[in-house]
Amino acid sequence: MLRPQDTATRERKSLTGLWRFRLDGAGEGRSAEWFRRPLTDAREMAVPASFNDIAADAAVRNYFGDVWYQTTVRVPRGWDSQRIVLHFESATHRATVWVNDAEVVSHEGGYTPFEAEVTEHVRAGGEARITVVVNNTLSFQTIPPGVIEDTPDGKRQIYWHDFFNYAGLHRPVWLYATGTAHLTDVTVVTGLDGANGSIEYRTEATDADGAQVKVVLRDADGAQVTTGTGASGTLTVENVHRWAPGDGYLYDLEVQLVDDAGGVLDSYHQSVGVRTVAVDGARFLINGEPFYFTGFGKHEDLAVIGKGHNDAFLVHDFELLKWVGANSFRASHYPYAEAVLDYADRQGIVVIDETAAVGLNMGLGGGIFGGQGYTTFSPDTVNDQTRQVHAQAIRELVARDKNHPSVVVWSIANEPESDTEGAERYFKPLFELTRQLDPTRPVGFVNVMLAPYPTCRVSQFGDVVMLNRYYGWYVNTGELKAAELAWEQELKGWASEGKPIIITEYGADTYPGLHSVTPQPWSEEYQVEYLDMNHRVFDRIDAVVGEQVWNFADFATTSGIMRVGGNKKGVFTRDRQPKAAAWALRRRWRRDD
Ligand code: GCB
Fold this sequence. Notes:
Helix content is 18%, strand content 32%. By secondary structure, the chain is of the alpha/beta class. Strand 24, helix 3 and strand 25 (350-354) form a beta-alpha-beta unit.
């Protein structure tokens, strides 16, 4: 699937704005066919945004089930005889869509795009009613998983991940037009050979019999570098300007479908960063050079709009990444909006890209999430069907993000149970699938503290070891000396495996403005000392090739006695003000300045 673009042959119309919106607590909308007419009893709702925090109403915030969105769009009159497509960048966690009275598409998974051709249901110049039922319920057969429990005061949605289950239409929605003969996919794989670069490209097209593919590569100034013909091929870029961390240099590959007479039937622009990624022993190489990750695990999380994409915060967050000296982040714990990856490409920020497979670990239930007493891998809980949904999530992630130079690792899950035979059986084929889909990038998963060295049975499948550890926070709380000893001992064990180790999480909840002369947990001083302790350990272990603090900013979670207005491990507050730790990290990560 290609992302909607405006090109010489393609045109798109944004459907963002205010839509009609209605909760469907009784679950009657589908059988009553609410899509057939204007939604009654509707309020207005912003798209893109999570619906949860927009209404000042606990019943909306905590709602799970079907919600309905509806808008009316006028199809551009110039789109006569064009192929017209309705495209959603995401709908969390699943959706079914109608155009006027016709059902056009359903999609499972809250963070990847889907679309439907709607040519036969609309008319250029005419109006069309678009109705979407979005459902945010989580079960053992969804990614991420959850369960609905009966309680004395009704049903309750439980899940095992530590961020609020924001839902709705989080990202832009588009109507777009192409010609009948059109490109459907473009893949690029880049290589380096001394001063030269190579770009291997593959294209797919539909209704394009007799048409030829031509490609034109231009540099960042728009000057033509080279051309090629054929649905696939390899281009050589002499004296290539490499894409590198801190130098987001991009070429533009224009792919054209051309008819016999030389007429351009379709034109699509794919940006290309020429770089290589490899693991060599315990080193992580970008362009053949050892790379050390500095940065954070992040979230898509903002006041009021929840997981709604926002361009102002996109730019601001990257400014803060640069200010603090971060060269990378993990798209924890789900695929982020495509605009984020495009921006990372342009800014030269490195990304660990993750599926939404978070919370496949019922052992984590106690204390934080409430859900207890479940077995993770069993026929009734996370099972073969879940694995199929998970596999599809991996397919859609790789299909969407395969061309981003910023993406250097696929993380197929965060903190699943990984010390059991069930886990080993569940994950082996998913690693194989990911490698088959993309043989060019290292694959890994993020290991949890409950499966410390040497008990993990899943890390054997990874090219890199990714660890989340909270020595000095969840264990050895307030005891940084003991934490340092225990942490170093465990890390030495992992280092003996000979793979690169990325610390994908370490962090301490910190209430901004809370201070203590003798650093106490929750104070800004403790967060600084906690990070210093971790850094001393990392600096003593050569196999550690990266440190990503948990978290970039404070974020919303379910309520509970372990969370004070959400998770407070942010180095920045939720509104992006620095805690003392931000300055400390800046001193470490920008020490050359
Ligand atoms: C973790 C999880 C992350 C949590 C974090 C915490 O290990 O991966 O989602 O938010 O711990 O703060 O407990």
